[in-house]
Amino acid sequence: MRANCVVRENLHKALLFFAAALLVFATPVVIAQQSGTGQQTASPMSPMAADAHPSFEVATIKPADPSETGNFIVGGHRLVIEGQTVNDLISFAYAVHRKQIVNGPAWLETERFDIDGQADQPGVANLHQVQEMLQKLLQDRFGLKLHREKRDLPIYAITLAKGGPKLTPSPKNTYGLPTQSGHGQGGQQQRKFTNNSMSDFALGMQNYMDRPVIDETNLPGRYDFILRWTPDNVPTTEPGAPPGIFTAIQEELGLKLEATKGPADVLVIDHIERPSAN
């Protein structure tokens, strides 16, 4: 499983699936084999067809062991989720901040579940296909019904800083998928964004913020860039340490992250129930 894993992240800690799993926006691994005719043939590690709309062929859902660490694993066309709340799953599946999910019962935040299933189509699903699979699972097994509204919420708006953006346009990406990857070291954070639109960037940054992040730059296209910052709650005396996230976004990217109130998509839960039996 480890060799096949293209998405793996602890979702329980600050919903980092957006930053590393999304979400994070993992690029499928392709292994080619030589056929008898001399042509290259795709192995089972090939990406799922881009126009595929997969569902779970089979899926088991059970209450999670409270002591287990949350994980999100995609290997081949198998999907394993461990120790996640339903709010975590909805947040990932519909690409929203948890504060954009309203009207749900209290157990959505407290009860955790394990899900083990496989897609009904071959190949490694991309981010959006995994999200589609989870949406269908939530509807079929949890009876999820919801509708969208626009509501004024406390948000962080990404706008252009004085002097304009400091971003490098992306060359054409093989799979057309955005990627976000990085690490923390000594309390400092670094994230590499490849082939990201500004909406992709906003989505990824929600993992580090206490409210939804909305793109208001109106910048078209996709970009490659690196962001380095020191979290506000991490004291540092190291020379050359990067600044806090608000200053880093402005100095390194030519963008501004501003706390404000504005319209944001909200998912209103109309109905949901504990999962049906396997």
UniProtKB/TrEMBL annotation:
Record keywords, A-Z: Signal
InterPro entries reported in the protein's UniProt record: DUF3738 (IPR017801)
Signal sequence region: 1-32
Top-level division of the source organism's lineage: Bacteria
NCBIfam families found in the cross-reference section: Soli_TIGR03435 (TIGR03435)
Name recorded for this polypeptide: Uncharacterized protein
